[in-house]
């Protein structure tokens, strides 16, 4: 059969795409945290179409159903980023509601409060639960904000079935990952203190319990970035440690306080602890299911007799792991060509998709798949990125090079996505090239690479993004006159630094980006309040460096048009940062747009705002670069004063 489809020749940026911003926003359901309890599968589902709420879904007898009332939003605010807001028990699911942060019992269509109401709004917060052997008592990370303006305190608490609770560990600044031994006699957990972040230096501690009472609590391991303690079915403790230079799985000798890697690979079996309830390895009888990242791309397999067996799948990114009684692993997985799905994978690689897949708006011929590129950057070091070429089956370009969007991921201790990202495809399908940069400091490349950003935030990340753009332009993959840089949060800071101290970009897009490091150090929440000590230098002792690297103090160097997007309820990077930057841009007569989204926090969750943000960015770039988008969208206002 002959394909008679007519290929249209049109300038980059003007290609018509079936993937609209509104379609993308409504279809961007977020699947997370699958948990197995007595072979029932549960997961969390973020739904932009339902005001961004997170629902808990139960999968039984091949049918999925929501738990709790239709409006219930299950989300923890511990550390502000949350995660681990719920757990299945013998008495039903227990979870924290976003509105008040209290714990509730969830039934099929209703809920009832479990814990007491604090004296101030959202004063008691709960996350990262584990279940005790009685299957009704739970241990939670507890964050107490009921201190009349002082910094919140963190601890571990044991919650009884009647909602009463007691502290079982306190004194450290932060806690995570409590896990109970099979016989219920010990609790292993991770703790750390300011100024460390959980990927810098943590403690592995073990509590001895007798009848749910603490009789001993001791440090077992320290000096490295430990995460995810797990007990084997026989009671052997394991933990992920970066002692070898990569996050590998170690067996722990609790008595002599030592650990030994059960495998030693130059790959990352751990991930940065931005959110709770992460799990990249899990026991199934004598085997350990595990996922890992190698050069930014995810893999899955199992360890048997200290040998790693990788499974060949189409997936390139994996979420939390749990196991079924038949030995299969359950996880949320995604590939370069399809969004996340909930799957059960057998040791022979057989994969069963458990949830209804989101309908794909783009067929495979319309999806741009990345090329992993490496290039030389600052200090003659190698940096990495994913390059996506423009891709649309109905269009071809004129005799020109495409505009390039350089993406700078957030964190900054994080990484570029290694799976299908509809936002990337929104741009490539319209004729933009995209490069998603794993700048020095990113995760997925080992401890040394992750530590490149220590003392160098605003320098290493910015340089790597600039060099990625130059590399692609010099090698004929992008138009050097139409380079754009875009980032959110920490990536927004990198974007602003690039626009301030480099002159290669034609436009910039900053989402809830950091403009003033001093303000961030003073005003941000507890979890990140000392993060800048390692990225910049101790505050306030190194205040001069903070001023030196804050774009807000160097707006006289700015000349590049930019669009700024911000949420009103952002507790991580408050709106005052964006508003201060906007005033400076107006004073300097620099073309700019500013969108403030009511009710949004650090990241946009509501479908209408996700769509508006993307369309506004497209409109802004069309006006700045001189092209007209193919479909009618609301024209964003560009101000010059």
Please write out the topology.
Blueprint: E1 8-9, H1 21-27, E2 30-37, E3 40-47, E4 53-60, E5 63-67, E6 86-89, E7 92-96, E8 103-106, E9 111-113, E10 124-131, E11 138-144, E12 153-159, E13 165-169, E14 174-180, E15 186-192, E16 202-210, E17 213-224, E18 227-231, E19 237-241, E20 248-253, E21 258-261, E22 281-284, E23 287-294, E24 297-304, E25 307-310, E26 317-318, E27 322-323, E28 329-334, E29 341-345, E30 351-353, E31 371-376, E32 382-388, E33 395-396, E34 404-408, H2 422-428, E35 433-438, H3 447-450, H4 460-474, E36 483-488, H5 490-501, E37 507-511, H6 517-523, H7 531-535, H8 543-548, E38 562-567, H9 575-587, E39 592-597, H10 607-625
Parallel strand pairs: 1-33, 34-35, 34-36, 36-37, 37-38, 38-39
Antiparallel strand pairs: 2-3, 3-4, 4-5, 6-7, 7-8, 8-9, 10-11, 11-12, 12-13, 14-15, 15-16, 16-17, 18-19, 19-20, 20-21, 22-23, 23-24, 24-25, 26-28, 27-28, 28-29, 29-30, 31-32, 32-35
Helix pairs in contact: 1-10, 4-5
From the 3D structure, determine the CATH topology of one domain. Answer: Rossmann fold
By CATH, the architecture of one domain is named: 3-Layer(aba) Sandwich
Q: Note poorly predicted spans.
A: none
Structural class: alpha+beta
How many alpha or pi helices? 10
- Per CATH, the class of one domain reads Alpha Beta
Gross morphology is globular
The CATH fourth-level homologous superfamily of one domain: Alpha/Beta hydrolase fold, catalytic domain
- Sheet with most strands: 8 strands, mixed
Helix fraction, binned, reads 10-25%
Termini separation: 58 Å
Mean pLDDT: 95
Radius of gyration: 24 Å
Strands across the major sheet, in which order? 31-32-35-34-36-37-38-39
Tally of extended strands?
Answer: 39
| Beta-strand content | 25-35%
């Amino acid at each position: 059969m002959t394909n008679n489809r007519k290929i249209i020749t049109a300038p980059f940026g003007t290609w018509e795409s079936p993937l609209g911003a509104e379609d993308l926003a409504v279809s961007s359901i977020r699947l997370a945290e699958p948990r197995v309890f007595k072979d029932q599968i549960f997961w969390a589902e973020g739904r932009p179409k339902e005001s961004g709420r997170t629902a808990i879904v139960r999968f039984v007898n091949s049918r999925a159903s929501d738990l709790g009332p239709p409006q219930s939003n299950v989300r923890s605010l511990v550390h502000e980023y949350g995660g681990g807001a719920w757990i299945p028990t013998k008495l039903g699911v227990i979870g924290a509601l976003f509105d008040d942060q209290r714990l509730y019992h969830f039934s099929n269509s209703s809920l009832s409060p479990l814990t007491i109401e604090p004296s101030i709004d959202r004063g008691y917060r709960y996350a990262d639960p584990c279940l005790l052997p009685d299957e009704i008592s739970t241990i939670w990370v507890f964050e107490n904000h009921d201190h009349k303006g002082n910094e919140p305190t963190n601890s571990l608490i044991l919650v009884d079935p009647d909602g009463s609770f007691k502290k079982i560990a306190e004194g450290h600044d932060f806690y995570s990952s409590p896990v109970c031994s099979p016989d219920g006699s010990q609790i292993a957990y991770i703790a750390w203190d300011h100024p460390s972040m959980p990927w810098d230096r943590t403690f592995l501690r073990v509590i001895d319990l007798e009848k749910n009472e603490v009789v001993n609590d001791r440090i077992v391991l320290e000096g490295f970035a430990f995460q995810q303690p797990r007990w084997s079915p026989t009671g052997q403790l394991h933990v992920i440690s970066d002692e070898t230079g990569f996050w590998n799985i170690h067996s722990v000798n609790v008595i002599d306080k030592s650990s030994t890697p059960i495998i030693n690979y130059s790959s990352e079996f751990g991930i940065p602890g931005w959110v709770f309830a992460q799990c990249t390895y899990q026991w199934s009888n004598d085997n350990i299911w595990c996922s890992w990242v190698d050069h930014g791309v995810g893999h899955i397999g199992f360890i048997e007799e200290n040998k790693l067996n990788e499974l060949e799948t189409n997936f390139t990114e994996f979420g939390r792991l749990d196991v079924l009684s038949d030995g299969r692993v359950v996880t949320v997985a995604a590939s370069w060509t399809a969004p996340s799905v909930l799957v059960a994978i057998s040791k022979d690689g057989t994969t069963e998709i458990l949830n209804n897949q989101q309908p794909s708006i783009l067929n495979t011929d319309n999806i741009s798949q990345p090329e992993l590129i490496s290039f030389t950057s600052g200090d003659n070091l190698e940096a990495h990125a994913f390059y996506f070429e423009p891709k649309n089956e109905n269009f071809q370009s004129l005799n020109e090079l495409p505009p390039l969007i350089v993406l700078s991921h957030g964190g900054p201790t994080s990484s570029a996505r290694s799976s299908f990202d509809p936002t990337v495809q929104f741009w490539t399908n319209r004729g933009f090239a995209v490069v998603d940069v794993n700048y020095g400091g990113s995760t997925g490349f080992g401890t040394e690479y992750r530590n490149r950003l220590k003392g160098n935030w605003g320098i290493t990340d910015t340089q790597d993004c600039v060099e990625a753009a130059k590399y692609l332009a010099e090698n004929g993959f992008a138009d050097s006159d139409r380079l754009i840089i875009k980032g959110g949060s920490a990536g927004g800071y990198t974007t602003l630094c690039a626009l301030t101290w480099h002159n290669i970009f034609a436009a910039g897009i900053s989402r809830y980006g950091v403009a003033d490091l001093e303000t961030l150090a003073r005003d941000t929440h507890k979890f990140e309040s000392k993060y800048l000590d390692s990225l910049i230098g101790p505050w306030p002792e190194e205040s001069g460096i903070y001023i030196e690297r804050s774009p807000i103090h160097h707006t006289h160097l700015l000349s590049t048009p930019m669009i700024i997007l911000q949420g009103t309820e952002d507790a991580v990077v408050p709106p005052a940062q964006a508003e201060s930057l906007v005033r400076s841009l107006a004073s300097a007569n620099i073309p700019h747009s500013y969108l403030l989204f009511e009710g949004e926090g650090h990241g946009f969750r509501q479908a209408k705002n996700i769509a508006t943000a993307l369309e506004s960015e497209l409109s802004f770039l069309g006006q700045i670069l001189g092209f007209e988008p193919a479909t009618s969208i609301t024209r964003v206002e560009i101000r010059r004063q």
